[in-house]
Amino acid sequence: MKINQNTVLQGQRVTLVPYTSAHVPRYHEWMQSEELQRLTASEPLSLEQEYEMQRSWRDDADKCTFIVLDTERWSGQACADEDCMVGDVNLFLTDTEDPTLGEIEIMIAGVRNLGITKFEAKIGQENEASICMFKKLHFKEVAVNSVFQEVTLRLDVSDQERRWLLEQTNHVEEKSYAEPKLPAGVLET
To answer: Which residues contact 134 (CB under 8 A, 6 or more apart)?
Structure first.
């Protein structure tokens, strides 16, 4: 989308830059991963097809794409964009009845590139269902804050933990969801 061709959104941890042809080789490299293809419901493309796709996204009026960069590495200009890339963000503006609605997709090709190896969840002490769910995902209790009445759970992502998480989600597949129709005479609330 041409509207974001000169837009950079810089945060403390990540920076969003327009998807340009300079990003295509690294993006193409990522998308050779069968795991990323499965997780993003994508088909493998040739490098030339990837360049065509980038041009299409750049010129399409109903798509807006940013590449996600590691801010710390990028802001010092110590490395080129493609060496700081960690993912992408796509915004689809396809609802002609509601031009204020945008569908967003976020892909992080590798959290290791951001230096993230731990995830924390802060949960109200009384929310036993959420605490139990996170513990089933191997999060461990690391702190209790009696002032805010919350528990902090942490997951340290080692290679072994990453393999376990991938095994637990290898059955996931994307399918179409059709909302059930309400019976005649029943109004939607």
So the answer is: 121, 123, 153, 155
What pLDDT, on a 0 to 100 scale, did the predictor assign at position 174? Answer: 34
Average confidence (pLDDT) over 154-166: 79
> Which alpha helices (H) appear in the chain, and where do they start and end?
24-30, 34-40, 47-59, 71-75, 81-84, 128-136, 159-168
Average pLDDT of the segment spanning 35-49: 84
Give the distance, in angstroms, between the CA of residue 168 and the centroid of all CA atoms in the same chain: 19
Amino acid occupying residue 6: N
For residue 24, what are its two tokens? 């295509």
> What is d(CA 4, CA 85) in angstroms, rounded to the nearest whole number?
18
Contact 48, 78 (CB under 8 A): no
CA distances from 123 to 117, 149, 153, 165 (A): 20, 8, 8, 21
Report the alpha-carbon angle 32-109-5, nearest 5: 95
- Please give the radius of gyration of the chain, using alpha carbons only, rounded to the nearest integer: 20
